[in-house]
Specification:
A hairpin with a 3-residue loop joins strand 7 and strand 8. About 45% of the residues are buried. Helix content is about 35%, strand content about 20%. With about 325 residues, the protein is an alpha/beta fold.
């Protein structure tokens, strides 16, 4: 396939995607998956094959062995507004956060999640349609919905989800992980996400124990579904404040702490770390100032390590997200 260098200065087609992999068979599979997602694909075995100092593509899918150094070599040639998806065979949580540390790398797809994850990620980037748990489920899967605004609603929702998971035959260890993630995501959505008109957290000065008696100013929703191989949940707030830098900072803090992790000390940040440790998939969709949706998936057979991470920002919101008080990075 020919590489489009855009020497005229005109932008490339929004659907043109660059696929890179030193493994020819892996590259062919990557190209096939991206084309199924609707992309116009340019493919190279090595970034050096792309003419010019700057790689002109907005979307780049890079499949390699997972060492951080090849990505670090690629990024200096990538546009500041480009979005790189890393497709790797393995990535422990510490390595995964390293791969995500650059503002242009907002997706990591690990192991057998690669092909399916590539398709979903490319589809969301190309269309700008980023919200919805259904994108991570087989077509026709029944999706359940609960809406709430307070601590009691959170308790009832978790109970409903746990009973549903049990009725679907989800193993106890996995149900425990699902419950933990729902607990953390709902608390964050109810009491950490809300801000006033000036952008200040409404419950920042309220003791965590006292927050449970408060009504969140906007409703929170949670959706959940079971398939033959997975269980999925999605929590959405109506503020749109969660940023990638915030997630990575807390995960890194927890990973590198020499002391025992203290829930009281880390607060919501610890919750983000616990979610990353409990789920197999962790995807954040953000429309800045409007909504944040966190989609988490779990393997039904047993608790699995995190292998799908993505941060998508609604088109047109990237600049606002990047300059927000909490920091962040665009991914759409």
């Amino acid at each position: 396939m020919d590489i489009i260098t855009s020497k005229s200065g005109r932008p490339l087609s929004r659907r043109r995607v660059l696929a890179i992999s030193p493994d020819l068979e892996r590259l062919r599979l990557l190209v096939s998956t991206l084309e199924r997602a609707g992309a116009e694909v340019d493919a190279v075995l090595d970034p050096s094959a792309v003419e010019g100092e700057v790689i002109p593509h907005r979307y780049i899918f890079f499949a390699w062995n997972g060492d951080v150094s090849p990505l670090e070599e690629l990024l200096p040639r990538v546009r500041q507004k480009a979005h790189v998806a890393a497709v790797v065979p393995r990535a422990p949580l510490g390595v995964l956060t390293q791969l995500l540390s650059d503002p242009r790398c907002n997706h990591v797809l690990v192991g057998d999640e690669g092909d399916r994850g590539v398709y979903i990620t490319a589809k969301k980037l190309l269309t700008g349609d980023i919200f919805g748990i259904e994108k991570y489920l087989p077509e026709g899967t029944e999706v359940n919905y609960v809406r709430l605004r307070d601590f009691q609603g959170r308790t009832n929702a978790i109970s409903t989800i746990q009973k549903y998971a049990e009725s679907k035959g989800v193993r106890r260890q996995v149900r425990a992980a699902i419950g933990q993630v729902c607990e953390e995501l709902l608390m964050n959505a109810l009491y950490d996400a809300p801000v006033d008109e000036s952008g200040h957290q409404i419950f920042a000065e309220v003791d965590p124990h006292d927050r449970t008696g408060s009504l969140s100013p906007r409703p929170v929703s949670i959706r959940f579904a079971a398939t033959e191989s997975q269980f999925a949940v999605a929590v959405r707030d109506r503020f749109g404040r969660l940023a990638k830098d915030t997630i990575l900072a807390y995960i890194s803090k927890c990973l590198n702490s020499e002391q025992q992790i203290d829930r009281k000390t880390y607060g919501a940040g610890l919750g983000l770390y616990l979610v990353a440790n409990a789920a197999a998939g962790y995807v954040v969709n953000v429309a800045h100032g409007m909504a944040t949706e966190v989609v988490c998936t779990f393997d039904r057979g047993s608790k699995a390590p995190l292998r799908l991470v993505g941060v998508f920002v609604h088109p047109g919101q990237a600049a606002a997200q990047h300059s927000s008080e909490s920091g962040g990075a665009s991914a759409a």
